[in-house]
Amino acid sequence: MFTTPEPNAKQTSWLILNDIHDRPESFGPLIKLNITDPYDYVFLYGDMFDYQTDEQQIIDHLVKPCTESFATQKPFMFVRGNHETRAGMRGN
Q1: Could you tell me if residue 28 is left (phi over 0), alpha (psi between -120 and 50 degrees) or otherwise beta?
Q2: What is the total count of domains within the chain?
Q3: pTM of the predicted model, to two decimals?
Q4: Structural domain of residue 24, as residue ranges?
Q5: Is the dihedral of CA 52, 69, 81, 41 positive or negative?
Q6: In-domain check, residue 3
Q7: pLDDT tens digits along 3-36
Q8: What CATH number does the domain containing 33 carry?
Q9: Residue 5: inside a domain, yes or no?
Q10: 14-17 vs 41-45, strand pairing mode
């Protein structure tokens, strides 16, 4: 079941993932490294891609793997890194 963090909580906890560099198969094993420590959300802290080719790549290599690994139960926040910022949509 998906739950959102308590808006009036005195503290929060999160997992931070970064530098995945378009290896969508990494999400599941990285989340499992946490074992049983509780967390409220996952923070994707940049460089999830080397560069983006189209919207489908973002769905297939970020949204779907996150959903399969954790996002049906925990929210996530994505902040673009230097690879998403400087490379942009290659070919455009």
Answers
A1: alpha
A2: 1
A3: 0.82
A4: 14-87
A5: positive
A6: no
A7: 777 889 898 899 999 999 999 999 999 999 998 8
A8: 3.60.21.40
A9: no
A10: parallel
